[in-house]
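hey m, so remember when u said the tokens were messed up on ur end? i reran from scratch. heres the input so u can diff it against urs
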Amino acid sequence: MRCYNCGAELTINPFCTNCGADIREYRRIIWTSNQYYNDGLTKAKVRDLSGAVLSLRACLKLNRTNIEARNLLGLVYFEMGEAVAAFAEWVVSKSLKPDRNIADDFMDTIQSNPGRLDTINHSIKKYNQALSYARQGSLDLSVIQLKKVLQMNPNLVVAYELLGLLYLQGEEYNRARRILNQALRIDRNNTRVLYYLKEAEEGIAARYSGDPGSSRRRRSAGRASADAITYTSGNETIIQPVNSGDRGGSSALLNIIIGAVIGCLLMLFLVLPSRIRSANNKMNDQLKELSDEITEKDADIEEQKKTIASLQSENNELKGSIGDLSGESGMAERYDYLAEAALNYIKDPDDVTGTESMLALIPTGSVSANAINLEIEAVGDLDPAIYSQSFRSLYNYLDNDVSSRAARSYIDKGKQEFEDGHYQSAIEDLLKATEIAPLNDEAWYYLAESYKQSGDSIHATQAYSRIVNEMADSEYADKARTNLSNGAAADNTNEDQAGNNDTADQDNTDNGEAAAPDADADLIAQALAMQALQAGAGADTETGAE
């Protein structure tokens, strides 16, 4: 024994020689705990399992580190069919003493047989289901479930107790007595089982005490006493018939006939109804079992239907995923685009626009250019959830190397087309440049100028506004602001009208009809220019305040 305070080995002294702690009460507690353990061990040997559980619990309450008591309590629980409680005790024992603990052997023995462990788990689930049926008042379903539980786990004492109680509730005392006697073979001194068994015996006794045959036997005894004289001679009791003469043959024959008739009547009114009732009960039990089996099979069918529906949905999703991976915009197509871009880059490193056009076909999940309001966002990184690391590395390498050069190439080409008067071609190339380099002021300025020269005042105003609002420090900001202040749409409209006077004279009617849309476009462009100037002025004011 070791000291509870310092862990030193104790001697016969009433105190610890190491730390001086008083160990008299401690020894008394340990001694009492050991007494409870011995008592539990004795009861377990004679199969008084419920009494052993009480003693071992008391032992562990006083000394929770008693490994032998905890392992024995687990064995008792397992013998009573309560495998979950047994495993709980063995796990605690293993945590208290990890090395050289027999609880390892117990758990390994059970876990090495998965079939037995699965049977125990199913029996516990069915017992819980039977208990739920009993609480709901479905006693017949509960009895059926408990019978299955006892077939799977014949040592589950609580199942015997519940089944016996249900039989008592249905006044089936003989069945209750048989089931409870089976429980006593496992746990010989279970108080609850003994109480139920006493109730069954009393029910059986009460049923037989009300048997109509008992009154007939008493009447027969009365008639016998009336036909005889009883007297005592010394220590002997003598019964002498009153009429000892021989009866005639006709009387005997009549008595035989009467006896046969009475026997037939007894058979008709007593034996046959009981047999019919027994056959009906047996048939009802079979019908209940069949009904329960049908219910379980229906539940299994519904569950299988749900499983089939889930698998079909998953199959459709997988087919959709395969279609996405193998379709026109699938992963296979994207790998082809990347391979073509890399091949073009290797063959002709100066063809940056071709390489960039191939890379642009690979979606990244970001928003592309909007041709209506010119809201162009930067292309984001590739999604790691979709693309592999090698794919993203090659893509980023090519994009980083060719994007700036491609943007420069599109800007130079657009400027040249602008100077040559090819404004639509210039717009297309400069839009590509702004997609690659959204903050390139030069590209936005020449894009606005191209829109202006092509007569698209709304998009020209939007491009100028972008320079003013987002690139205020640019060298083109003042020019854009001047164009917005002077009205780019109006200037362009005047130039177009001056250059086309002859055409206007010939198509006077058509020009009259188109004047309204041009006026509306001018109004929209002026409104956008005013908003951009106000926004730029507000930004300048905030910068000055800071």
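this time it looks ok to me. The two ends are 80 Å apart (CA to CA). if urs says something different then somethings off w ur setup not the seq
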